[in-house]
Amino acid sequence: MKEYKLPDLPYPYNALEPYIDEATMRLHHDKHHLAYVNGLNAAIKKLEEAREKGDFSAIRALSGQLAFHGSGHIMHCIFWEIMCPAKESKEPKQGKLYEKIVESFGSFEGFKKQFSEAAKAVEGNGWAVLAYEPLGDRLIVLQAENHQKLTFQGSTPLLVLDVWEHAYYLKYQNNRAAYVDGWWNVVNWKEVERRFLSARK
pLDDT tens digits for 53-94? Predict the structure, then answer.
C-alpha cells in the first residue's frame, strides 16, 4: 500500500511572522497535520483488512475516518501552499482570477468581506474555502466544518483558511477574528491563481 506522507513546508517555520508565529507553525504542521496523515494511512489499512476478511461491520466508522483524515490532509496541503511571507503577498489587481472574483462577488473587497465573515462564523472547527464550481463556471465561498462537512461536491478548493483553534490559539488565543484579519497579509495569490487556472482547464 502506498502511504501518504507529510509534506515539507514551502518556507521556514518563522516565514509568516508576525501574522502566524513560529511556535504555531511547528505545532500545526509537525503535530496536527501529521496526525491526519497517520489517521488516513490507518483508515486505508483497516479498509484493506476489511476487504481481505470480507467483514464490513465497521464500514461506517472506517468511512468516516477516511473522510475526516483524508480531507484534513488535503486541506492542510493546500493551506501551506497558499501562504507566503508578507513581503511576497500581493493582491491581484488584474488577471483571470481577479476578473472571476469580481464577476462572482461584485468586487474584490466584497469577496474578501464574505470570505472573512464565513471564516469567523464557522461553527466549531473547520475552514473557509474559496472554490471554483465548474458547472456554473463561478467562484463560491464555503464553510467546511471538520474538513469534510458542508462541502460542494465537484468544486475545487483554491484558497483555504484553517480556523480550527490549533491554527491560531497560541498567538491570538480565542480571538479568531484578529487571526482571520491578519491572515490576509500572507496569502500567496500567485499560487491561488495557478490553482484557479488549472481548475478551469
Answer: 999 999 999 999 999 999 999 999 999 999 999 999 999 999
Q: Where are the domains of the chain?
A: 22-84, 87-200
Tens of pLDDT, residues 83-94: 999 999 999 999
CATH T-level assignment (fold) for domain 22-84: Helix Hairpins (1.10.287)
Domain 87-200 sits in CATH 3.55.40.20: yes
The 3-class SS string of the chain reads CCCCCCCCCCCCCCCCCCCCCHHHHHHHHHHHHHHHHHHHHHHHHHHHHHHHHCCCCCHHHHHHHHHHHHHHHHHHHHHHHCECCHHHCCCCCCCHHHHHHHHHHCCHHHHHHHHHHHHHHCCCCEEEEEEEECCCCEEEEEEEECCCECCCCCCEEEEEEECCHHHCHHHHCCCHHHHHHHHHHHECHHHHHHHHHHHHC
